[in-house]
Amino acid sequence: xxxxxxxxxxxxxxxxxxxxxxxxxxxxxxxxxxxxxxxxxxxxxxxxxxxxxxxxxxxxxxxxxxxxxxxxxxxx
Length: 76
What we know:
4 helices, 76 residues, 0% strand, single chain, mainly alpha
């Protein structure tokens, strides 16, 4: 397995863990939601480089997407 896929799988695992911990949804539902998200599309496209970010950073992006119905860039 190459390093990109290994990092991707680790981030996905952590995001699902965070979601299980913070929501009332079941594991299968959370997996389906995340794998159909724009965040996952960007994360799994290695050209974006998102797989190099921390799982918490990607989780925060996913939360923004869920709140807004799409991925948006916010001011910090």
